[in-house]
Amino acid sequence: MRRAAAGLALLAAALPAAAVEYRSIGERPAILYDAPSTRADRLFIATRSYPFEVLVRLDQWTKVRDANGEVAWVENKALTERPTVVVTVPVADVHAAPDPQSPLVFEAYKQVFLEVVEPPAGEWVKVRHRDGQQGFVRITHVWGV
């Protein structure tokens, strides 16, 4: 029995970790529920661009987790594949290049949503503010990638 458990542990360690999938709320706010049904209890309303980690997908529903760890269900039609992140630090510096010594383009405050322009590279991700400014922010200062 111990051999089998040890073998399974080695197999699990050898397999690549599943990629985390994120989706964002589309153009209109969405109601999040405690179960995959519009008859379930309503938990809260998520605003446009709010990012979520995908936990489970069903035909018409997705179970999601937000930046605070809250879990809920949302209708698939409310989600978009356009990636966004939310700032998790009091002030995130957005630079012209993925280098803290590069010029500062703008500052994004906690709970601000930013559109992801390019996939993350190293410690940085390229983002765009809704007013059009874009630059690079440290991945550790945002959630959703």
Total of domains:
2
Largest sheet: 5 strands, antiparallel
- Please identify the structural class as seen in this structure: mainly beta
- The radius of gyration is 18 Å
Q: Can you tell me the CATH topology of the largest domain?
A: SH3 type barrels
Spatial sequence of strands, sheet with the most strands? 6-5-4-1-7
In which range does the helix fraction lie?
A: under 10%
Distance between the termini: 39 Å
Global geometry: elongated
Number of beta strands: 14
Look at the structure and give the CATH class of the largest domain: Mainly Beta
The CATH architecture of the largest domain comes to Roll
Query: Which runs of at least 5 residues are low in confidence (pLDDT < 50)?
Result: 1-15
- Written as H for each helix and E for each strand, in order along the chain, the element string is HEEEEEEEEEEEEEE
User: Beta fraction of the residues?
Assistant: over 45%
Summarize model confidence as the mean pLDDT: 90
Going by CATH, the homologous superfamily of the largest domain would be: SH3 Domains
Description of the structure:
This protein is mainly β. It folds into 2 domains: 19-80, SH3 type barrels, CATH 2.30.30.40; 84-143, SH3 Domains (SH3 type barrels), CATH 2.30.30. It contains 1 helix and 14 strands. The protein has one helix at residues 2-14; strands at 22-25, 30-33, 42-46, 51-57, 61-65, 71-75, 79-80, 84-87, 91-95, 104-109, 113-121, 124-128, 134-138, 142-143. Strands 6-5-4-1-7 form a 5-stranded antiparallel sheet, with no helix packed on it. The chain is elongated, with a radius of gyration of 18 Å.
